[in-house]
Write a structure and sequence with these properties.
The complex is a heterodimer of chains A (89) and B (210). Chain A has 89 residues and is mainly alpha-helical. Helices cover 67% and strands 0% of the residues of chain A. The longest helix of chain B is centred in the C-terminal third of the chain and has 25 residues. Classes of the chains: A mainly alpha (89), B mainly alpha (210).
Chain lengths: 89, 210
């Protein structure tokens, strides 16, 4: 239905992108995975998308700075919890 | 009472089961401490980073994490030992964040997940946005640029990217954490990824990539 008048050359790009996301999120069914893997062998635009989407996930995981948990946070949580359990007295 | 209590559903159950309300346990104090220390506290790092990425503020993030742990302890009897503590804790934190934001906000609807959902999903769920991005442009980005692109997204879109890509939750876990159907998780993620890609694209352009 969707004639890919868009510059991307894959006529099934909508379907392919949907499956691509599922695949990269480990949510694709075996059938979907088989379809996309063999499709990628012959479709350059989708292969390019695959690489870009993979890289976006990669930079999110590797380039975002991790915040250090403030040193006192763990202890303050622990001590308040044990106070709440301690018998009154 | 029902409303607050419903927040602490047992994450081991399916979505339909949770409609019936959480199962209750009666853990001894030492058991509670064992669960708390062994299953809850190890997630403090992820929790803190999640809270920080929602608030962009260390003090607020700290408050949310503390509040989440206190609530988790208070309602520990609705947690099934050995199940998905991380998802359970994230759900509590997310709910605290939303409640707090609604309280503070002059325009509550602005941060209403459901509202945003309806708006963005109105008629273009399957809209295919082609954003031309190059792998080498992405590889050359620095952390700040990636971070700015992510932070520029509305909170609900930011949230699904964080849960999926940074924390590795499955769609089903995300559905429980966010109280939305899996189909909505999928479409919201799809939308979020397109928006993120547009942001990354504009950074790539300012770096001179085309």
């Amino acid at each position: 239905m969707e004639q890919s008048s868009a510059k991307e050359g894959c006529k099934e790009s909508v379907k392919c992108i949907e499956i691509l996301h599922l695949l990269l999120d480990n949510e694709a069914s075996p059938t979907q995975e088989d379809y996309l893997r063999s499709h990628l062998d012959s479709c350059l635009p989708c292969l390019k998308n695959y690489k870009v989407e993979t890289e976006i996930r990669n930079i999110l995981r590797t380039k975002l700075e991790k915040r250090e948990v403030p040193a006192d946070l763990l202890n303050s949580i622990k001590s308040k919890i044990s106070v709440s359990l301690a018998p009154e007295g | 009472m029902g409303k607050e209590f419903a927040e602490f559903i047992d994450m081991s159950t399916t979505v339909t089961e949770t409609m019936e309300g959480p199962k209750r346990h009666s853990y001894s104090d030492s058991k509670k401490m064992k669960i708390f220390n062994g299953e809850f506290l190890p997630h403090i790092d992820s929790m803190y980073n999640f809270a920080y990425r929602l608030t962009f503020d260390d003090d607020e993030a700290k408050d949310f994490v503390q509040e989440t742990y206190f609530k988790a302890f208070r309602f520990i009897d609705s947690f099934q030992e050995g199940t998905n503590a991380k998802a359970w804790l994230f759900r509590i934190l997310k709910n605290s964040f939303i409640n707090d934001f609604r309280k503070k906000s002059k325009e509550p609807a602005k941060v209403d997940y459901q509202e945003v959902e309806t708006y963005y999903n109105s008629d273009d769920v399957d809209e295919h946005i082609t954003v031309d991005l190059r792998v080498d442009a992405l590889q050359n980005m620095i952390g700040d640029e990636v971070s700015n692109a992510l932070n520029a997204l509305d909170v609900d879109f930011r949230t699904v990217i964080i849960l999926c890509d940074l924390e590795g939750f499955t769609y089903e876990e995300m559905a429980k954490i966010l109280d939305i159907p899996i189909g909505t998780v999928r479409s919201r993620l799809h939308r979020a990824r397109n928006l993120l890609k547009e942001k990354l694209k504009s950074y790539a352009q300012t770096m001179g990539y085309k």
